[in-house]
Automatic annotation (TrEMBL), chain B:
Residues 72-263 form the ABC transmembrane type-1 domain. It is a multi-pass membrane protein. The keyword Acyltransferase does not apply. The chain crosses the membrane at residues 7-28, 71-96, 108-128, 140-161, 182-207, 245-263. It is found in: Cell inner membrane; Cell membrane. The gene is ugpE. Its main location: membrane. Part of the ABC transporter complex UgpBAEC involved in sn-glycerol-3-phosphate (G3P) import. Probably responsible for the translocation of the substrate across the membrane. This is sn-glycerol-3-phosphate transport system permease protein UgpE. CDD domains: TM_PBP2. It comes from Palleronia caenipelagi. One of its GO terms (biological process) is transmembrane transport. Keywords: Cell inner membrane, Cell membrane, Membrane, Transmembrane, Transmembrane helix, Transport. Belongs to the binding-protein-dependent transport system permease family.
C-alpha cells in the first residue's frame, strides 16, 4: 500500500477512509444488515424451507400471521390474577421501582429498567385462553418460560459465586493467581466439550456424581431425564462453565475501589464480611448491574446445553427459545414461524443491549 | 500481609478450586483408561480421577481411524481464516472511523453500533437461506464469512486507535506520507497489543462456535471439531467407547487451553471485551 497518484501526499483523506472502511462495510452489509432485514421479511411469509428451496415462488405473503400463530391464540383473555404468583411479584416490583426511583437509591436507568421489567411481569402472565380458547402454538410461551427460568437460576448463581470468589481472590500473590486461573479455565472450553463432560458427570450409571452418591450409600439421581432435576443439571453445568467472565469483570471492578476505604474501615474494626458488606458491595453496585445485564443477554441465548444434554426434555421442561427456533426452522422446515420467533428474540435482546449500553455510558 | 488468615483463605479457596477442576481432570483421566474397563466401571482408582489402569490407545485409535484429525484440521483452517479476516476488516475500518474524516461518518458509526445488538440467533435463518441460494454451504468460507460482519472488532480497534497521540500522524503527514502508508507503516505496528486481543477473541469464538457450523456444515467432511464432538457424544457408549470420546474432547480443548495458559492476560482481556460487548 504505497502512495498513490494525485500528488506527493497520495490519496485524499476521504479516499483513504473509503478504501479502508469499504471491506468491512461490504461484509457487514452482506452478512449482517441484509440477513437481518431478510429475516424480518421471511417472518412475514408462509415459507417452507424445502418447498422454497425447490421453487422460489412457493412462499406466500401472510403479513403478521406468523406472529399471531406463534404468540397468540383463540379466545385469549387477560386477568389480573390469572397467574397470581408472578403477577403479585410484578406488582411488588413496580412498587419497589417507584420507591427506589423516588428515593434515588439506584440510578434512574436502573429504576426505569426494573419498573419496565416488573410491569411486563404483571401484564404478560395475565394473558390466558378463556372458555373454549387455546394458544395457536402451545409450546411457545412455555418455552419462553423455561428460558426465563434458566436465566433466573443461572444469572444469580453465576453472579453471587463470581462476586464472592472475586472478593476473596483479589490479591496479587502467586497462590491467588493460580486459583484464579483454575476457576477461569473451564470458560475457554467449547459448549460441546462442556456438555460432553457434564453429560457423563450426571450419568446415573457411569457418572462421577453417581459414584460419589453410591460411596455414601445413596441411590443415584437420574439427572438428565428426571423432570425435577434436568433444569438444575443444566444450570449447574452453566455456572461451572461461565463463572470466569463474571469473576474477571468483578476483579476489574474491585481494582477501582480505593485501598484507603478498607484501611479506614479497618480502623473501625470492619474487616472480612463486614468490609465486604459495607464497602465492597456499595462500591461495586455499577459493576454488579452490568454483570447481571450481560449474563441475562448471554444466558437468554442458551442453546447447546439444552440441545446436547437433554434434547429439550424430559417432557419439554428444558426446551429453550433458541432450540425451539432451530427446530422449527430446520426440523419442521417452518422458516416463517421460526423467523417470527427470531425477531421476538431480537426485540428482547435489543432491549437488554440498550440497557447495557446506557449503563456502560453512565460509568464514563 | 502474609499472615495466618491469608494461608487459611488460600487453603479454604483451594477446595472449591479443586472441585472446579475435577470435571476437566476426570475427562483427561477417562481418556487415558482402556474402554473395556470403562464399560464396567468409571471409578477404578480414586473415583476414576487417576488413570490407572493406564493406556494411550484411545488417542492412537483417534488418529488411526475416525474423522477427529480431519475435524481438527477444519477447525484450524476456519479459526485461522476467521482470525485473519476479522483482523483485516477490523483494523482498517477501526482506523478509518477513529482517525479519518469522510462523508456520512456518523451514520456509518451508528449503523455499526446497532449491529452490536443483533445476536447470531436472530440472523442465522436468513443467512442459511442466503448461503443455500449461493450454494455455499459445506465450505470453509461459509463457516468464516458471517463472523467477519460482526462489528465488535471494529469498535475494539477504533477505541485503541483513538487513544494513540495525534502527533505521530501529524509528523508523518508533514513529511508527506500518504494516509494508507501511515496506516500500514505507523499505526499497525503500534496496534499489535489490540490486534492480539482481537485475534484471541476471534480464535476462541471460531474454535468454540456451535450454532452456525451446526446449520451450515451438514457434510461430516466439513465439521469443525466442536461440531464433530457434538455428533459423536450422543451415542458414545455404544459406538466409540467412552475413552475415545473423552480423548476427542481433550484434543478439541487442547488448542484453546494451551492458548489460554500461554496468553492468559490477553485471553482474559479478550473474553472480557467479548463478554461485555457481544
Amino acid at each position: 500500500m504505497g502512495q498513490q497518484t494525485s500528488g506527493r501526499r497520495g490519496l485524499s483523506e476521504t479516499g483513504a477512509a473509503l478504501i479502508l472502511i469499504s471491506p468491512f462495510l461490504a461484509v457487514y452489509g452482506l452478512f449482517l444488515v441484509y440477513p437481518f432485514f431478510k429475516g424480518v421479511w421471511i417472518s412475514l411469509h408462509d415459507w417452507n424451507l424445502l418447498e422454497v428451496a425447490f421453487n422460489p415462488d412457493a412462499k406466500e405473503y401472510v403479513g403478521l400471521r406468523n406472529y399471531e400463530r406463534v404468540m397468540w391464540g383463540k379466545g385469549i383473555t387477560w386477568g389480573a390474577f390469572a397467574a397470581p404468583v408472578l403477577q403479585i411479584l410484578g406488582l411488588i416490583g413496580i412498587g419497589a421501582a417507584l420507591w427506589l426511583g423516588r428515593t434515588a437509591r439506584v440510578s434512574r436507568a436502573t429504576a426505569i429498567a426494573l419498573g419496565i421489567a416488573a410491569l411486563l411481569l404483571f401484564v404478560l402472565p395475565g394473558f390466558h385462553p378463556g372458555e373454549g380458547g387455546r394458544w395457536y402454538d402451545r409450546r411457545f410461551w412455555p418455552t419462553v418460560g423455561n428460558t426465563l427460568v434458566f436465566v433466573a437460576l443461572a444469572v444469580p448463581g453465576v453472579t453471587i459465586s463470581a462476586l464472592l470468589l472475586a472478593a476473596a481472590l483479589n490479591r496479587e500473590t502467586r497462590a491467588m493467581s493460580v486459583l484464579r486461573t483454575l476457576f477461569f479455565l473451564s470458560q475457554v472450553l467449547s459448549v460441546t466439550v462442556v456438555t460432553l463432560i457434564w453429560q457423563i458427570m450426571f450419568s446415573p450409571r457411569q457418572g462421577l456424581i453417581a459414584n460419589i452418591t453410591e460411596l455414601f450409600g445413596g441411590s443415584p439421581i437420574v439427572w438428565l431425564t428426571d423432570e425435577r432435576f434436568a433444569m438444575a443439571a443444566i444450570v449447574i453445568t452453566t455456572v461451572w462453565w461461565s463463572l470466569g467472565i463474571a469473576m474477571i469483570l468483578f476483579l476489574a471492578g474491585l481494582q477501582d475501589i480505593s485501598k484507603d476505604l478498607y484501611e479506614a474501615a479497618a480502623l473501625d474494626n470492619a474487616t472480612g464480611m463486614k468490609a465486604f458488606w459495607h464497602i465492597t458491595l456499595p462500591n461495586l453496585k455499577r459493576t454488579i448491574t452490568l454483570v447481571i445485564v450481560l449474563q441475562i443477554i448471554l444466558h437468554f441465548q442458551v442453546f447447546g446445553q439444552s440441545h446436547l444434554m437433554t434434547q429439550g426434555g424430559p417432557n419439554d421442561t428444558t426446551q429453550v427459545l433458541v432450540r425451539y427456533i432451530y427446530q422449527t426452522a430446520f426440523r419442521d422446515s417452518e422458516l416463517g414461524r421460526a423467523s417470527a420467533m427470531a425477531v421476538f428474540l431480537f426485540v428482547i435482546m435489543g432491549g437488554f443491549s440498550i440497557l447495557q449500553f446506557v449503563l456502560g455510558r453512565e460509568k464514563d | 500481609m502474609q499472615n495466618r488468615g491469608y494461608y487459611w483463605l488460600v487453603t479454604l479457596l483451594a477446595i472449591p478450586a479443586f472441585i472446579w477442576l475435577v470435571p476437566t481432570l476426570w475427562m483427561v483421566s477417562l481418556s487415558l483408561q482402556p474402554n473395556e474397563v470403562l464399560a464396567r466401571t468409571t471409578s477404578s482408582t480414586a473415583l476414576g480421577l487417576v488413570p490407572i489402569p493406564f493406556t494411550t490407545e484411545n488417542y492412537a485409535a483417534l488418529f488411526a481411524f475416525g474423522q477427529t484429525p480431519l475435524w481438527f484440521l477444519n477447525s484450524v483452517i476456519v479459526a485461522l481464516g476467521m482470525t485473519l479476516g476479522v483482523l483485516a476488516v477490523s483494523t482498517t475500518a477501526g482506523y478509518a472511523l477513529a482517525r479519518l474524516d469522510f462523508p456520512l461518518k456518523t451514520p456509518v458509526m451508528v449503523l455499526c453500533l446497532i449491529g452490536l445488538m443483533v445476536p447470531e440467533q436472530a440472523v442465522f435463518i436468513p443467512l442459511y437461506t442466503m448461503f443455500a441460494d449461493l450454494g455455499w454451504h459445506n465450505s470453509y468460507h461459509a463457516l468464516i464469512l458471517p463472523r467477519m460482519a460482526v462489528p465488535i472488532g471494529v469498535f475494539l480497534m477504533m477505541q485503541f486507535f483513538r487513544a494513540i497521540p495525534k502527533d505521530i500522524e501529524e509528523a508523518a503527514r508533514i513529511d508527506g506520507v500518504g494516509w494508507l502508508a501511515i496506516f500500514w507503516h505507523v499505526m499497525l505496528p503500534l496496534a499489535r497489543p489490540a490486534m492480539m486481543t482481537l485475534a484471541i477473541l476471534t480464535f476462541l469464538y471460531a474454535w468454540n462456535d456451535y450454532l452456525w457450523p451446526l446449520v451450515s456444515a451438514q457434510k461430516r467432511d466439513y465439521f469443525t471439531i466442536t461440531l464433530g464432538l457434538a455428533s459423536i457424544q450422543s451415542n458414545f457408549a455404544q459406538s466409540e467407547g467412552l475413552g475415545r470420546v473423552m480423548a476427542s474432547g481433550v484434543i478439541a480443548s487442547l488448542p484453546v487451553v494451551v492458548l489460554f495458559l500461554i496468553f492468559q492476560r490477553y485471553v482474559v482481556q479478550a473474553m472480557t471485551v467479548g463478554g461485555s460487548k457481544g
